[in-house]
Amino acid sequence: MIQLNINGKSEQVDVEPNTPLLWVIREQLGLTGTKYGCGVAQCGSCTVHLDGAAVRSCAVPVSAVTGKKITTIEGLAAGNVLHKVQKAWLDHEVPQCGYCQAGMIMAVASLLRDKPKPTDADIDATITNICRCGTFNQVREAIHAAAKA
Amino acid sequence: MNSDNPNLSRRFFIIGSAAVGSGLALGLNIPFGPGIVRAADGSPEVTAWVVIRPDDTVVIRIARSEMGQGTLTGLAQMVAEELECDWSKVTTEYPTPGQSVARKRVWGNFSTGGSRGIRDSHDYVRRGGAAARTMLIQAAAEAWRVPAAECSAANSVITHQPSGRTTTFGKVAEAASRITPPKDVALKDPKDWKIIGKPVRRLDTLDKLTGKQVYCADLKLPGMLNATIKECPVFGGKVKSFDAAKVAGMKGVKKVVQVGDTAVAVVADTWWQAKTALDALPIVWDEGENAKVSSASIAEILKAGLDAPQAFIGNQNGDAKAAIAGAAKKVEAVYAYPYLNHATMEPMNATARYTADRCEVWCPTQNGEAAFAVTLAASGLPADKCEVYKIHLGGGFGRRGAFHDYVTQAVRIAKQMPGIPVKLLWTREEDMAQGRYHPVTQCKLVGAFDAGNNLTGLHMRISGQSILAAVRPQALQNGRDPAQFQGVAPSGEFEFGYGVPNLLIDHAMRNPHVPPGFWRGVNINQNAIYIECFMDELAQAAGQDPLEFRRKLMGKHPKHLAVLNAVAEKAGWGKPAPQGVFRGLAQMKAFNSFVAACAEISVSGGNKVTVHRIVCATDPGYAVNRAQIERQIGGSFVYGLSALFEQECTVKNGRIEQQNFNDYSSMRIAQMPKVEAIIMPSGGFWGGVGEPTICVAAPAVLNAYFAATGKRIRSFPLKNHGITMV
Amino acid sequence: MQRGSRRRFLAAAGGLAAAVALPSTAAAQATRTPFNDMPDVIRRLVGSAQINPGKVKLGLPPLVENGHLVPLTVSVESPMTEAAHVKAIHVLTEKNPLPEVASFHLGARAGRASVAARIRLADTQTVVAIAELSDGSFWSDSTHVIVTLAACLEEL
Questions:
Q1: Which residue spans of chain A are classified as CATH 1.10.150.120?
Q2: CB contact under 8 A, C63 and B372
Q3: What distance in Å separates the CA atoms of residue B418 and residue B408, rounded to the nearest whole number?
Q4: Which structural domain range is residue B114 located in?
Q5: What are the chain C neighbours of B373 within 8 Å (beta carbons)?
Q6: pLDDT tens-digit profile of B660-693?
Q7: Among B85, B304, B387, B601, which one is least packed by beta carbons within 10 Å?
Q8: B174 and B228: one domain?
């Protein structure tokens, strides 16, 4: 049994220790907001926070996260109050199909925690998520808006 | 069909439809049996398009599929406009294809592709809204015993003008649903539109921000098992054998099954367990003859087609060959465009549950009816025993409209585990290996000039794969594939934008074994590069500015010219660009819209390309939602430029080599140019939005690259030439 | 043009009218595949004889993904004796370039008046099966089939 601290709650899961965190989140814990896009840490759809820092959960074995605070997209908002990134995303109508967006939002939330007023160069260097619908210009607008909020 | 008494039920339908004229055009249908048709929660259908709840919530039925392109919201805008409802109270619902068949297709076509979602439905969905409004007003008028002509509706409120009495839609919906629908309804003049044409907020954003939006890959059903699959990577090959015993004991594994002749799947408690077991499963393939095929062998065949004597003619006037033979000067170039995969963010998947009495499928699909047809065929059950539930798509781009291989697979697996819902999700690697690829082509273009540097002739020979020949041979016209000439056709939605005195555009069809499909934009992607880059080559040979050279040939194509002029003006063509910035142009008509782009780039070190901005103009006739159109333009550039710079699917030993985003990359935010969209609807026609603009970004960038470096690149992706997008 | 030819088709088919589900106007306008001159096609088959609805059961799925290989069955109520049998079954389509897609010649020795085949359908359309009986009478059934793949390609 593995003990996990996820979205502020303590959960126990019975799973092989080398199971990627992504699949434990989706299957054992039933939180499907975090997505499978590639499984090889290229696309970022699986991005979650470990102690507030963005990681690609498809590349992290669940055994490596005991003792860390895991936050998924479901845990980003404070109850009914959207996180400022989510609010900016809503105001600027960022998502198209939306599949990559949870990962994108988590990556951006982590960036803003480290750099509250990121420059375009900061954004370019840190946000490497893939979006096949191509929402990037709205993402950039929304990041700057969230930084001002 | 109702098999108990087909003649009776059909006659009943005909009596109903005779009373209302063409049932579909008004969006109305009378059910088999008496009474009001009700939605699941008991709220009455005023018409099949509109359900109104007592609290005034308006549920609008949407037949097409939302895959990010905003069509769901656009269609709702159109119904709401005529309905005169309170937009803030609108929600939407997908009718199922089973309901569609049972109700004789009352919602029309479910297909979402060809950039047709709005332009093919706008008329009848607006009429559906208008009819409902008429019936609601009539119900209020009857209750008040006043003439309906003295009443009007706005924001879900009906007012009797003379007395000032009001009521709401919710209060009269029940009575309205009993009224015989009107035969004719008048539609609003576009100048009176209050919702259509406004950039209203999308209806489907919030859940995508919080993890609440469910995609089919996320589906959870009681007792559900998970599966993943591997199909023979050599197209046309089969399963020879597999050793289930090697993995049967692995944790969570429930069953290892063969799926058709060509694939093997593992079913387990969790997807990760299924994938782990499948990775460990020994499978022997009977690869067949196609194992010998490679990109090189395909290229050789295509190259021969460039000079083959026989070809299908797509566009012709005068005698291009004679003009070329007698030319004072000739320009010739050969281009090549590779196979591409869709790479939707959500890999292929479907969930199915099968018993002898019922087969249900949940899937992402661009065409619910096609998914339903495939379900009928794969289950062997009749229509009234099957159903498909459309789940929100994590991207479509053409992969999930005409191809439902994943549905067939899911049903075949479910048939081997009756009663158990099985969710089949492909790995990304399987998604790369089993695509329906944008077809491979090459193109030889020859232009002829007279002594005065006037273009006297043009021969464009396309050599390569036809999608229709593989996917829908019935659509070939005496063997010819008309889709091959998108963007360079003699007339219609893809009309060539230039008047050339002696023109020949033809296609030597060469069909490799790799399965082709419709990739966003389809054949305009390579045709726009072929013709728009060659136009620049011709301009250069004639010593003329690329814009001026084109203008001279566009006198009879005013709408093509209008968008080209718009981008040229906005970008400042003809005025000096900032230091180190170079420009390129392109234009095309596609999916009935006129589009053009001007790209501004810089190149450092000869091979690092920064695309600073792209000015893009589109004339789609009418603009339903400008905010969505802007996003489609930008999004289409990401799709198209990712392909131009970084993507190809190569063939080795009969299979696709690329496996994941590490060797089939896609643009990141750092590379994304600024996009300035000029949306200039000229009215009088309806053009598409989701696809047309994709085709002009690549040639505009390539033409700018020539301006910057003096080099023409004629084969793609650019990374093969050491060129990167930074 | 299309609506006119549909009405003529139904008129020529006599009592067939009630049994034919009309394709929607919008769908018909969206597809450019022309309708066959069905009255003419039928006249060439049956002459001026009346065609009666009934006795024939045409089995086709209500929708197919691709009109490439559509499974079809036709069965006719008949004792199939020398005195009373089905001489022939014809299957006609509204929109295929060649309207007659299948023709089966039976006779008393066929035993059962039941046939199966796979046919190609060019587009969403109505399919009609006409049975010719030994007493010179004609009977029919029809079904409307949606071909979903046609949708991607309507403007071509």
A1: 84-148
A2: yes
A3: 15
A4: 6-190
A5: 61, 63-65, 146, 148
A6: 999 999 999 999 999 999 999 999 999 999 999 9
A7: B304
A8: no
Q: Are residues B515 and B373 in the same domain?
A: no
Looking up residue B284, the CATH number of its domain turns out to be 3.30.365.10
**Highest CATH level, class, for A2-75:** alpha beta
- The domain boundary residue, chosen from B391, B425, B459: B425
A33 in contact with chain B, both atoms CB, cutoff 8 A: yes
* Min distance B540 CA to chain A CA atoms (Å): 33
Using only C-alpha atoms, what is the Rg of chain A?
15
Residue of C nearest to B369 (CA): C148
The whole-number average pLDDT for the span B495-516 is 98
For the segment(s) A84-148, the CATH number from 2.30.180.10, 3.30.200.20, 1.10.150.120, 3.40.50.2300 is 1.10.150.120
Is B672 an interface residue toward C (CB < 8 Å)?
A: no
CB of B582 within 8 Å of a chain A CB? The answer is: no
Residues of chain A with CATH 3.10.20.30: 2-75
State the pTM of this model. Answer: 0.90
Q: Are B211 and A128 in contact (CB < 8 Å)?
A: no
CA neighbor of B237 nearest in space, from B280, B284, B282: B284
> B209 in a domain, yes or no?
no
* Inter-chain CB proximity C151 and B109 less than 8 Å: yes
Q: Is residue B300 domain-shared with residue B284, that is, in the same domain?
A: no
Residue B363 placed within a domain: yes
Residue B110 and residue B401 in contact, taking contact as beta carbons nearer than 8 Å:
no
Q: Is B406 in the same domain as B264?
A: yes
**What are the b/e assignments for B184-220, b being 16+ CB within 10 Å?**
ebeeeeeeebebbbbebbbbbbbebbbbebebbbbbe
Does the pLDDT of residue B383 top 50, yes or no?
A: yes
Residues 77-106 of chain C whose Cβ lies under 8 A from any Cβ of chain B: none
- A53 contacts chain B (CB < 8 A): no
Q: Looking at the domain assignment, is residue B204 inside a domain?
A: no
Residue B296 has pLDDT above 50, yes or no: yes
CB–CB of B209 and A127 under 8 A?
no
Are residues B167 and B312 both part of a single domain? Answer: no
Q: How far is CA B105 from the centre of its chain?
A: 21
Summarised one tens digit per residue, pLDDT across range B565-593 is 999 999 999 999 999 999 999 999 999 99
Question: Closest Cα partner for B97 from B406, B375, B398?
Answer: B375
A61 shares contact with chain B (CB less than 8 Å): no
CB neighbour list of residue B663: distance below 8 Å, 6 or more residues apart: B657
Rounded Cα–Cα distance for residues A128 and B693 (Å): 25
- Does C24 contact B113 at a Cβ distance shorter than 8 Å? no
Same domain, B28 and B126: yes
Instruction: Return residues 420-459 of B near A (CB < 8 Å).
Output: 425, 427-428
Nearest to A49 by CA among A21, A82, A24, A91: A21
> Residue B198 domain-assigned?
no
Residues of B in contact with C53 (CB under 8 A): 7
Number of domains in chain B: 3
Physical contact, B and C (3 or more Cβ pairs within 8 A) = yes
In 3D, which of C155, C91, C99 has the Cα closest to residue C122? C99
Which residue in chain C is spatially nearest to B486 when comparing CA positions? C156
* Spatial separation of the C-alpha atoms in residues B624 and B434, rounded to whole Å: 36
Range 650-709 of B in CB contact (< 8 A) with A: 660-662, 665-670, 672, 674-675
Residue C150 Cα, gap to closest chain B Cα (Å): 8
Q: Where do the domains of chain C lie, and which CATH numbers do they carry?
A: 2-153 (2.60.40.2470)
Chain B: closest CA distance from residue A128 (Å): 6
The alpha carbon dihedral of B673, B678, B679, B682 has a sign of negative
3-state secondary structure of B252: coil
- The reply to whether residue C21 touches residue B104, judged by beta carbons under 8 angstroms, is yes
